[in-house]
């Protein structure tokens, strides 16, 4: 089948989802109110709480969630065939990710832009809140550690990509200063930065940047030194005001994403590349089953708990109008689904001209997993070659795209982990850590840095196998919070309950499958480390199911005592809805009372 046919059909389905389904969610489920005073205005401080144009905020949100995971997950999952992978990307994006991301943002905005972890304690129950904070901290540790390794590996393997990546940082700061001081549009300055970054690709090919001499001088490997440097950058970036680096760099990377999508779309159309991979692959004996593991392999790109952390962590603090949540939250999920779609096509059509070529790259599950990033880069380079772009330049372009996504996700991820460290410290009544931003940021950096530097590629090669289930458990927790909130406000919770039940069922099933696989493995790391951790996550999943069921039952019982909320936002009903009343604080409340 021609790749361009699949591409156009899926994009059409995404457009229909935004036009009709997100509109239904905005009116009937989340009840967005254009007159509601958002936390960005109520607690405006010029650092974290900054009212932001929805187009700029979309860029921040989308690029923060669009890291390496929506590329790696689909690139591995097509091992089972492109049919199941694409079906989950489409249905998961429209009916699960959009509901999840949009809902987490809407609920957080109605609760002073508090994180989804804190909201779990307020909306579902204190035990659920404690559980959520622990799971979130573990998830963010994995994401920050592994993405630093991804960036370091690409810097080592593709030194030509270092210069185009580095030049964007000071230029993005200049854009941030210009836009913030002059209140001008960010489009033209960001396009200029992107043009300069692309213009530096040929120079990067001529003068590749390495840290080998410095690494040798300090007694480290180049990869280790890059990891340390990446975390040093993330520490500094997470302390800067969001308008100075986070927003402008995300906006530049959004333009880069649009260019990448255009290269893939036009390359597939001009080259008339056909999908050579099977719809459903006849995998070798002993391979992991696609059902249910597909639903944790493709997390980002279908539904991902990490998105709720971004939505309630940084995005909610910048939302200018509550009605912008539809554009930022739901459309952001569609953008991530589009990236996953492109990864599927690059790894099934762009990377190989014949079935035999494709089979060589996907001979078994281990080969598919180890070569996922390289397969995507090769696929994008081949699509670029159809447009007359040399493959060497196309490969550097693809590497710069992945590095840009991974590093900007770390910008947000470390900032989010600082928030979680402060919330945990506040819960434990350890005020010095809760109130000291430098100390909290150091703690947020130190834990994932130590994991990334662990010997034997421990973060990526070992613990990352738990990412999918941990991430989907986080998504289940977020959906449970949203479902309880929607139910308490006398709105229809079915749109939230369906993906919640499906996700918890698939995650629990996948945990059992992996537990059996880890426990029976000859590898002692799997048997004595991953198996107990998997069992712990399974116990947490069961705990979540019980907590969510109890909270939903209580919410349903409470809603029967009052009339249904009006579809225009239901502000009067929300004020009487138990835990939701707190989100209507006095607009004159001091800005310093917001969470930071």
From TrEMBL:
Residues 565-596 are annotated as: Disordered. The chain crosses the membrane at residues 85-109, 130-155, 161-180, 187-205, 225-246, 258-277, 289-310, 330-353, 393-412, 433-454, 466-487, 494-516, 528-552. It is found in: Cell membrane. The keyword Transmembrane applies. One of its GO terms (cellular component) is plasma membrane. Residues 3-348, 367-510 form the CstA N-terminal domain. InterPro entries: CstA, CstA_N. Keywords: Cell membrane, Membrane, Transmembrane, Transmembrane helix. This is Carbon starvation protein CstA. The lineage of its organism: Bacteria, Bacillati, Actinomycetota, Actinomycetes, Streptosporangiales.
